[in-house]
Design goal:
The structure holds 2 protein chains of 2 kinds. By secondary structure, chain A is α+β, with helices and mostly antiparallel strands. In chain A, 27% of the residues lie in helices and 34% in strands. The chains are: A alpha+beta, B mainly alpha.
């Protein structure tokens, strides 16, 4: 009972929650409109360097080995999905994150500093410029 | 004959407080490792169970002990997981320290806030700090922030629930001491 009572919080807690929810939903809406709505492209970055770009939806499968800081990662694009099938990092969180297909989706391998990003042509202004 | 002064006996209250702190530290480290072994709900997203212990220590023992526990828990957790001084460790360390700092600021300066509000702010700061560190210093891609809003939404839920759990546990611990605990006035 005490736990259920505690869930209510004080009016200040509820105010903080309301402010947080409104801000987060507003930011989400902004991101949705910013990722672009045209042809989805897969961009593969190492740090700020753009390594490769491929269309997400293509007839033939793409296999790209991205060189990273602690080895590299195997990126595969097939049937409108992108995933990392192998990485030399220890946690393998990037491999375990599975397949991605939506605009704005991304796979990040932090130890390798590799980012795989699905983006439309109309991209966010604050995107990094590839070197 | 030279008279040797026996060492001064430590204050029993201090020893008891340190023993409690060590117990909380073990619990927090265990939860940290347990969470790492759990299936992930998304990149960099964890339930933040170990933060419940930081909240309890903040309320029961004070700010210095809470910062010490957060720091020690990250180092012990990284040692056990084999991630010490890796980029993941640095992300975790900075995010946890900023989240603990936000807990202290909210607990100290926001009126009528309870542990739910404190935990909510800490969860949001922790998630944002992780993205900031990874986006600015490791992957260096601002596009990373696309992922932030949905994860912040999940952080609101886990932050609130963790705060309620911490509130419940603090109330139970105080009830055992014959004191009553409610949200900060």
């Amino acid at each position: 009972m005490l736990f259920l009572h505690a869930l209510k919080g004080t009016w200040m807690d509820r105010l903080l929650l309301l402010v947080a929810l409104v801000s987060v939903l507003g930011a989400w809406e902004w991101v949705q409109t910013s990722v672009g709505a045209s042809t989805p492209m897969v961009h593969i970055y190492h740090g700020q360097t753009l390594l490769a770009s491929y269309p997400l939806k293509s007839d033939k499968a793409v296999h790209y080995y991205a060189q990273g800081d602690v080895g590299g990662a195997d990126v595969v694009i097939v049937a409108g999905h992108v995933r990392i099938i192998h990485s030399t990092c220890t946690s393998k969180a990037c491999v375990l994150s599975g397949e991605h297909e939506h605009l704005g989706d991304m796979i990040a391998c932090v130890p390798n500093r590799i980012l795989v990003l699905i983006e439309g042509e109309k991209s966010l202004q604050l995107d990094a410029v590839s070197q | 004959m030279k008279h040797i002064q026996p060492p001064e006996r430590p204050n029993l209250k201090d020893v008891e407080k340190k023993a409690y702190w060590l117990g909380f530290l073990l619990l927090a480290s265990g939860l940290h490792v347990f969470e790492a072994a759990m299936p992930s709900f998304g990149p960099w997203f964890k339930l933040g169970l170990a933060n419940i212990i930081t909240l309890i220590v903040l309320v029961l023992m004070g700010e210095r002990y809470a910062i010490g526990l957060a720091l020690a828990r990250i180092v012990i957790g990284a040692l056990l997981l084999g991630t010490l001084f890796t980029p993941t460790f640095m992300v975790s360390l900075i995010a946890t320290l900023l989240a603990t700092a936000s807990m202290i600021i909210v607990w100290r300066y926001v009126p009528r806030v309870s542990l739910m509000g404190v935990s909510l702010c800490a969860a949001l700061v922790h998630m944002t700090a992780q993205f900031w560190v990874v986006g600015e210093f490791i992957i260096q891609q601002s596009a990373l922030y696309y992922l932030l809003p949905p994860l912040l939404l999940l952080s609101c839920v886990t932050g609130w629930l963790n705060g309620a759990l911490a509130h419940y546990m603090v109330a139970q611990l105080h009830t055992r001491d014959g004191e009553k605990i409610v949200g900060k006035n």
